Amino acid sequence: MFSIITILSMLGLVFLLSFLYFRNKQERDSAGEDSADITLSGYFSWLFRCIPGFFRAVWIKRCKELFQDSISQRYPAGQRWIFICLGLSFLFQAASGFLFTLLGTQRLYGLSLLLHVLGGGLFAVSLSLVLVLRARCYSFDKQSSESKKDFPGWYQKILFWLFVVSGFILIVTALALMLPFFSLNVQQGMFEVHRYSALVALLSAAAFAYFALLEEGK
Amino acid sequence: MNHKKIIFLLVTGLCAVAILAALAGQIIQNWDGSQTTPVHQIPLKDEFDQNIIPTESYPLPYSTKYTCAPCHEYNIIQDGLHFNAALSTQHGRPGEPWIWVDTKTGTVLPLSYRNWKGMWDPRKLGLTSWDFTLLFGRHMVGGGVNEPGDDEMSSESRWDVSGKIEINCMACHNASRMQSHSEWAKQVLRQNFRWAATAASGLGEVGGMASRLPGTWDIFDGPNPDDTEWAVVPFVRYNSNRFDSKNRVFFDIAHKPDNYRCLTCHSVYPVQMKKIDIDDDVHSAAGLKCIDCHRNDLSHNMIRGYDGEAEDFQNPGLGDFSCQGCHMGKDLSGKDEANAGRLGAPYPLHRGIPAVHFEKLSCTVCHAGPLPSNDFTRVRTSRANRLGIYGVAQWFTDLPHIIEPVFIMDQEGIIVPHRLMWPAYWGRLEGEKISPLKPADVQAAAEGIFDVEERIARILGAIFMGSELEGIPVLVTHGNVYEFNVDAGLDVSPYSGEKPGMEVLWAIKKDGKVNSLVPDFDPGAEELDIEIESRIQKILESLATMNDAPGKPILVYKNFMYQVSEGYLEKKEMPGERVEFPRWCWLKDNKTQPLASEFKIRTITATVGFEQSLTEEQIELVLKSLAQTENQQVAEDKVEFFYISGGEMFRIDGTGKLTADEHPAADPVVWPLGHQVRPAQQSLGINGCYDCHKVQSAFFFNKVEGTGPLKTQKVAKRSALSFMRMDRPFQKLFGLSFTVRPLFKIILFVSALIIGSILVIVFLTALGRLSGIIEKRK
């Protein structure tokens, strides 16, 4: 069940974000004109044309540029590493967790589990530091929208806090699963919560990245 | 009415009468719903279905088949678990094998009629029902192979003399403390098969021995008035107080057998533990009987209660009685709901134990058997080590060497604790085909190689019996003193006296002091001291009485030889090497050989006082002897003989040397253990993860070393992890990770605290703004 929900929600998010990107791109390209083709058939033909582009080396270059624009040039070295740690640990956690769920026949075990747990520690520390350093920027204060560069839009704020809340639940459930307080049934419930929190975190992180990297940079 | 109609009615009527008559003989008692057990005040019947009158001159033993049959269908019962091993096709999870132990040949061979891995089918070894009953009837309950059909009887069997062993209902259902397993074992070993149940139940006293009767005797011959000493025909003297005026007997029947009846054959105890320290299984301590879980109906197909039994036998109801089924309401797959909580089974919370443990481990890993320690726990079991038979003699055996708990991953990927033993046997290898040899066949082919200890004991015994010594004759060699014991073997103790002048000294032990068999004397003197002369003569005469004496006994000293000729001690000059100390020898074909050869001395030095009873030298000699029996086949490399011990297969290589290598046939034999179940407080993991997850964990990093009757350094070694199909480096790393876990938990906790605090602030701020509290303050 979880696998089905995961696959459907991921596909849904990919569709939503790519369609959003397509719509914005069409609107930008046909600025002032009435001929923008924002239909599903137009979207799929655009998507079909874009697919070869994913396999070109220019894609890697674009990612590097995005990284430099969004992280490298924007934050001091110390903060930069915290962001990198958060990103990498989250990517590893998501990859190890979801690949086992989607491809494997059993839960995480062995070395993967050990690394997943260790990665969880890094994720927890980096998330708490990011929150300490950046929470102010994502507060829903009216003054905070003064500088667009430092203070993102509402979508991003909501996604950021969604990610933080799901990350918090991930950390709490992981910690609780290690403590000798909970019965097997409670543990199994917490494991389910952990999985669904991970899914919410992944989806919110992906959407956040879209808005932060692609929409912001246009 | 015509003739045809009359004939038809007659035939129909006769058939109806015949059917009714047949049914009348079998009164089937259906349960009326009462939970009481009827009083069993019933007449005893013999094997010819005749009422037993105890005052008759030669009453026969009672037959369960006919005594119990009017109410209980014997034919249905005999398909039950305890009787159907040789006939059943569904065997379920492996159980304990019958282990054929023959210490003389070093045979420890696991047998089972059930098709379980590593266990040999007795039929394939040429063991008949008769052989099997003689070997293991002591701990069997009759029926099945103990009661073969007429077509299954082999020519060398003596069933007609001994009778068959019918199912001994009272072995389990007798609530009386008079039921004696020791008596049962004794009668079975005397081949008093048909009398065994009567003797064991205490209904009467059984005498005589069927084993001493000629093979032509049968029950119709009755007693033999001419022999009341040796070949006494078995007889029973019933305890007349047990019979009422109608010759009925009261059977104190337990519908649900008491635990001690089950434990007669199913006891297991750790060798190092004292009786006072052994606790009951937690279920027994809570007041449950074995039969409460291992229950059965008239079919006597006992529920074994293991996880997966419901699937094995396609009977969902069995799932109620597995650990998971009863305590958690789940079967092994976790899918089907079982009827949990029967008999008050508590639901375990298992606080803090990660779910993976319940997916990968059976309940018994943490809750049954001894806790894992650096050394595996050696146990003895009733059937393997002959426990529960009491008498003057020591019945229990050290072999087989069974250890537990060995954690093994089963076919379903679940880790289950097992008992483990290493097989040891002689065999014949023809291509890929392995055929174990019967101990008797090996012994016949290797005369004089196995019975070294007995031969030396016989020499000492002969000297003791005939020499009127003021002490016990002993053999002093290699710093030890060997003296014979009542079991026709040798006992060893360290020698603390002055170092003797020779390597092998035949001596007398008196008041703890050891002196030479004959005091020092001068053989060159004209006349010997009369006492010395008398002692030499008596010793030589007593040695000469030995049946297997390889020659004439003599005493050689300096250049003289003493022997007994026509009742007189004769002294002769002996040319050749001068012997500085008196040496007892055998003289054969004018050649002298020592009383005990160097081979025998080497062998007893290496084996007496040790659990191992064989040396590599013996193995080599026996294998060569066996090869000679099939010289041609061996020469053509078609056949090879081997001995298996300690997980290694020993063979003679092309150069004639003994080699050892691992072979699947030498693999250990294992079977899962279910009991003793420990309470939660004593379960594995009660002290936390460190019970198993640490760098030097006994659970993960123990090693099982091969054991067997052979004294050798060449034994197989298996890691505990190899049984669990796990990686050592990962488990080391995983164990190590537990040392930093407390720190890791603190880091997670602090992180969660920071994130949580900020989230609370954000939440409260939003709430304050929503309610206008924050705005108003501003």
Description:
The complex is a heterodimer of chains A (218) and B (778). Chain A has 218 residues and is mostly helical. Chain A folds into 2 domains: 39-73, no CATH class; 77-218, Fumarate Reductase Cytochrome B subunit, CATH 1.20.950. In chain A, 78% of the residues lie in helices and 0% in strands. Chain A is globular and about 65 Å long. Chain A starts with a helix and ends with a helix. The model of chain A has no long low-confidence stretch (mean pLDDT 81). In chain B, strand 18 (552-558) and strand 19 form a beta hairpin. Chain B has 778 residues and is α+β, with helices and mostly antiparallel strands. The termini of chain B are far apart. Helices cover 30% and strands 19% of the residues of chain B. The model of chain B is unreliable at 20-25 (pLDDT under 50). The A-B interface holds A 106-107, 109-111, 114, 117, 120-121, 124-125, 127-128, 131-132, 135, 139-140, 161, 164-165, 167-168, 171-172, 174-175, 177-184, 187-188, 191 and B 348-356, 358-359, 688, 727, 730, 733-734, 737, 741, 744-745, 747-752, 754-756, 758-759, 762, 765-766, 769.
Which SSEs are present, and which pair or pack?
The complex is a heterodimer of chains A (218) and B (778).
Chain A (H helix, E strand, L loop, with lengths): L1 H28 L10 H15 L3 H15 L4 H27 L6 H25 L19 H25 L5 H34 L1
Helix pairs in contact in A: 1-7, 3-7, 4-5, 5-6, 6-7
Chain B lengths: L2 H22 L15 E4 L20 H4 L6 H4 L20 E5 L4 E5 L17 H8 L22 H4 L6 H5 L7 H9 L3 H9 L2 E4 L27 E4 L9 E4 L7 H8 L1 E3 L11 H4 L4 H4 L15 H4 L10 H6 L27 H5 L2 H5 L9 E5 H4 L16 E8 L5 E7 L3 E6 L2 E4 L2 H7 L6 H16 L4 E6 L2 E5 L5 E5 L9 E7 L2 E4 L13 H15 L7 E7 L1 E6 L2 E6 L5 E10 L2 E4 L3 H10 L6 E2 H14 L1 H5 L4 E6 L2 E5 L5 E4 L7 E4 L25 H4 L1 E3 L4 E2 L5 E3 H5 L3 H44 L1 H5 L1
Parallel strand pairs in B: 23-29
Antiparallel strand pairs in B: 1-6, 2-3, 4-5, 7-8, 8-9, 9-10, 10-27, 11-12, 11-24, 13-14, 13-16, 14-15, 16-17, 18-19, 18-21, 19-20, 21-22, 24-25, 25-26, 28-30
Helix pairs in contact in B: 7-8, 18-19
